[in-house]
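Q: A reviewer asked whether we had any structural model of the full assembly, not just the individual parts. We don't, so I'm hoping you can provide one. Inputs are below.
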Amino acid sequence: DAGVIQSPRHEVTEMGQEVTLRCKPISGHDYLFWYRQTMMRGLELLIYFNNNVPIDDSGMPEDRFSAKMPNASFSTLKIQPSEPRDSAVYFCASSFRGAAGELFFGEGSRLTVL
Amino acid sequence: QKEVEQDPGPLSVPEGAIVSLNCTYSNSAFQYFMWYRQYSRKGPELLMYTYSSGNKEDGRFTAQVDKSSKYISLFIRDSQPSDSATYLCAMRRNQGGKLIFGQGTELSVKP
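A: Here is a predicted structure for the entire assembly that you could use as a starting point for your response.
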């Protein structure tokens, strides 16, 4: 299996622009998570889905952030408009309920907002 | 107060040393406890997993959970330069669902 696939790996954009991050989870996994990692705050859960349905979005910072999962093999995290404080590494992870604690992470999308 | 507290380090030790990494937590409902390892510019990978209290050993790694003290530990024996990474504790209330991470401790093992 190819693992969790994220794109783009790196994104540099200017303040005010729209940013879309993409994720393909591992086939057969029924949970999908979006995390954000910064030096100051560590790894923060933004939102997670179960069977394509958003379960908990309490970690989404504000209305500028939105996430969708239109089908079992694709999810997007969108930031509109982007701000410099959104600069971080964004990770997507997937898991299977029967596998207790193991989340499989992608390589991350490193976002820089100038 | 964060639900999970972890000293970010950095921690530097000589090769062969015993390393002790720790986390405390506030939510007594947590039942599943994990340690993830993250190499530079990579995603975290599961290293150890423990359900409820007790010890678990896997090679040079031992995970301990003390639910009465809300404290978990990871011990690395005979540490190697290849162990240099960031170690993140993580925990959740039940199977599936929300996994909460500590901030991570950056470990450097010097040859």
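A: Points you may want to mention in the reply: The longest strand of chain B covers residues 85-92. DSSP finds no helices and eleven strands in chain B.
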